[in-house]
Amino acid sequence: MSENWYINFVKTSLEVIRNSHVPLRSSKFSKKKYTQHQLLTLIILKEKIGKDYRDFTELLPNLTTITDIIQLEEIPHYTTLQKFLSRIPSLTFRIILKNVIRRLHQKGEIIRITSIDSTGFTSSYASHYYSKRINKTRKSFIKASIAVDSDKLIILGWKFSKVPVHDSQHAKSLINQVIRIKKSDCFTMDKGYDSEKIHQYIRENIGAESIIPVRKWNGNIYSGKYRKEMIENFNQEKYGQRNMVETVFSVIKRKYNENVRSRKYFNQIKEIKIRMLIHNMTL
Prior knowledge:
Largest sheet: 5 strands, mixed
Strand order of the largest sheet: 3-2-1-4-5
CATH class of the largest domain: Alpha Beta
CATH topology of the largest domain: Nucleotidyltransferase, domain 5
Shape: elongated
Order of helices and strands: HHHHHHEHEEHEHEHHHH
Strand content: 5-15%
């Protein structure tokens, strides 16, 4: 991509961070060498470029236009960025996500269809001794579930777990994240989310339509009121929009990889959140 593209990306990142009311300093006792806005912008740019911390900080001296925009007087050591990612609250990324979504939707706009699905990200990090002892690369798994505006491909919410869990355990949290920001007329999910309770929550508590295919247990269908409706009157056209959430996962993994670089679980989640923010910011 052109240098102008990266310049515009950095300017957008700074603007989003400022409008999300991220404090300049983490506390009044913090060092005054770098602001949180500068460090967070650098981490977002690092993830966009796809470099590790060491390579990214070695590249920065050549990006004079970008460092001027960030008003960076001195290139930070790569460990400064690593420690900052560990220190910044995970809630900060949720606040930034809300701000980005509001930039992409008009005021009062209603989302026609929200699609929910999950995928996995992996970390191949393991100590050299451990990998040598078991004679293979150790990988950890992170389950990521997201809600997506099927028309605009905007990520509306996210939920993570360290171990594989049933899809339905993430559904309610994702639905609530969406409705706190925007109203949605319809929620679509695959068979993994098939549950009368999920239907009931969407229909009766949210006041929206739910479209989830009914699955069978031992060849039998155990249906409730809304699951019976799915069997008798399933809207295949609207359900077809659920594929858009799979498209978003494919785009993120293709552009930014499905492996995460951080060693610690909570930093791994933050890396994935940054990739999802970048996806929204570059729509």
